[in-house]
C-alpha cells in the first residue's frame, strides 16, 4: 500500500484525481491543500498511518447494521472494490445468519456471518461503516477503538449544534465530545476536511440532492437566500426496511405520499449547510414526498436570482464548479434530469431552467437515494479517508431501463 500511503502527503486538486477511466482532463484546477489535523486527533492519525504503512493486503471493513438497505448497498459496492475486504458484519435481529439468507442477491458473496453488535470483534477491522438507526449510533461509536476510521450513515453526527439535534430528534445527544470531532461529509464540498477526518457524518439523501446545486450558487452570491422553495420526491427505500404501516404497498402504490410537512428531520441539516455557505441564517420551505418506486430522488428547487444575475450565469457557474467532477454532472441546456438515469449509480444530475416569473429559476437535481444519497457517498468518503482515489469501486454505468 506504499502508493496509497503517499497520496495522503500530497495536495489534492479540485478534481481529486477523478476521471480515472478516461485519464486526467486538461483543465485549470485550483489546488486545495489538506488541512492539518487537530492536535487532539494527531495520535489517532499517527496510529492509522503506521498501520497503513505496514499493510500490503486489503483494508479490513466492518459494516454495522448490514441487514438494512444502506448496509446491503455498502456490501454490493464493496464486492467490486480492489482495496477493501469485509471482515465484520452486524445485524442484531439477524445474528447468526448468512448475508445470503437475508439478501438473496448477495448469496454468492463470501462473507462472514452476521453477529450482534455486542459480540463484534474489531481486532481485525481498519474502518467501519455505521448503517444503524439514529439514536443508537452515538453510544456504539463512543465504544469503538480510537484507531478506526468511521463513516456514519445515520443522522447522529450531522448537526453541529447538539441542542438542535435534541430539538429535532427528541433526545439528548449521547456523544457530544465526538460531535466536535465529526466532519460533515458532502464530498465535493468538503474534501480536505474529509481526508483528514477520523469520523465522518455522511449526509442525508435529501440534503445531498439539495446542497450540491445550491451551495456553489449561494457562495457565488448568484441567488438570494430568502424564499427558497424545495419540493423533493423519494423512492420508498428512503424510509428504511423496517415494517411500517405507512410503507405498505397499498398505502404507497398508485399515489404520492407527502410527509414530514414543515417538520422533516432533514430541514436543520439542509439549513445548516446553506447557512454556512451564506455566512448567515438561511430558512427554507421544504416538503418531501414518497413516490411509488423503489429508489431514486428528485429535488425541484425554486430560487430567486440575485440582482443582475441570469439563469445563464447560474448555469455557467455550476458548469465551471463541477467540470472536473466525476459524479456531479450538469446536463446540456434544456435537458431534464430523470431519476431513471441515475439508478444504481453514484451520480447526481443537475440542470437549471428559467421560471416564467421574472428573476426566478428552477433547479432540478436527481440522485439514487441509496447510492449518492447514502452508501455510494459513504464509500466515496472512506476512499478519501484511506488515501484511495475516491472513485474506486464507484464508477459504474447506471442501470437502465
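^ Assign residues to that structure.
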Amino acid at each position: 500500500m506504499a502508493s496509497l500511503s503517499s497520496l495522503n502527503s500530497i495536495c489534492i486538486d479540485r478534481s481529486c484525481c477523478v476521471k480515472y477511466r478516461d485519464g486526467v482532463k486538461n483543465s485549470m484546477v485550483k489546488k486545495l491543500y489538506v488541512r492539518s489535523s487537530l492536535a487532539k486527533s494527531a495520535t489517532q492519525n499517527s496510529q492509522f498511518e503506521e498501520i497503513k504503512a505496514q499493510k500490503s493486503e486489503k483494508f479490513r471493513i466492518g459494516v454495522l447494521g448490514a441487514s438494512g438497505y444502506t448496509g446491503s448497498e455498502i456490501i454490493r459496492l464493496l464486492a467490486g472494490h480492489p482495496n477493501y475486504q469485509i471482515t465484520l458484519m452486524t445485524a442484531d435481529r439477524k445474528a447468526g445468519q448468512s448475508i445470503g439468507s437475508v439478501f438473496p442477491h448477495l448469496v454468492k458473496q463470501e462473507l462472514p456471518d452476521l453477529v450482534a453488535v455486542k459480540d463484534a470483534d474489531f481486532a481485525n477491522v481498519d474502518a467501519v461503516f455505521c448503517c444503524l438507526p439514529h439514536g443508537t449510533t452515538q453510544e456504539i461509536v463512543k465504544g469503538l477503538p480510537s484507531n478506526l476510521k468511521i463513516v456514519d450513515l445515520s443522522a447522529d453526527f450531522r448537526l453541529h449544534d447538539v441542542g438542535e439535534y435534541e430539538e429535532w430528534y427528541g433526545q439528548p445527544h449521547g456523544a457530544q465530545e465526538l460531535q466536535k470531532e465529526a466532519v460533515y461529509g458532502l464530498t465535493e464540498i468538503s474534501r480536505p476536511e474529509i481526508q483528514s477526518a477520523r469520523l465522518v457524518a455522511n449526509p442525508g439523501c435529501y440534503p445531498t440532492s439539495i446542497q450540491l446545486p445550491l451551495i456553489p450558487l449561494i457562495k457565488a452570491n448568484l441567488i438570494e437566500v430568502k424564499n427558497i422553495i424545495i419540493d423533493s420526491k423519494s423512492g420508498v427505500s428512503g424510509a428504511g426496511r423496517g415494517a411500517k404501516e405507512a410503507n405498505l404497498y397499498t398505502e404507497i402504490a398508485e399515489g404520492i405520499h407527502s410527509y414530514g410537512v414543515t417538520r422533516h428531520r432533514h430541514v436543520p441539516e439542509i439549513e445548516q449547510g446553506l447557512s454556512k455557505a451564506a455566512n448567515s441564517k438561511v430558512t427554507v420551505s421544504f416538503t418531501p414526498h414518497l413516490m411509488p418506486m423503489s429508489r431514486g430522488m428528485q429535488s425541484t428547487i425554486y430560487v430567486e436570482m440575485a440582482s443582475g444575475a441570469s439563469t445563464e450565469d447560474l448555469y455557467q457557474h455550476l458548469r465551471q464548479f463541477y467540470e472536473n467532477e466525476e459524479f456531479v454532472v450538469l446536463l446540456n441546456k434544456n435537458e431534464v434530469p430523470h431519476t431513471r438515469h441515475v439508478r444504481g449509480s453514484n451520480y447526481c444530475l443537475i440542470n437549471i431552467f428559467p421560471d416564467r416569473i421574472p428573476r426566478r429559476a428552477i433547479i432540478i437535481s436527481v440522485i439514487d437515494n441509496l447510492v449518492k444519497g447514502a452508501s455510494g457517498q459513504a464509500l466515496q468518503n472512506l476512499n478519501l479517508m484511506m488515501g484511495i482515489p475516491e472513485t474506486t469501486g464507484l464508477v459504474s454505468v447506471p442501470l437502465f431501463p
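The radius of gyration is 20 Å.
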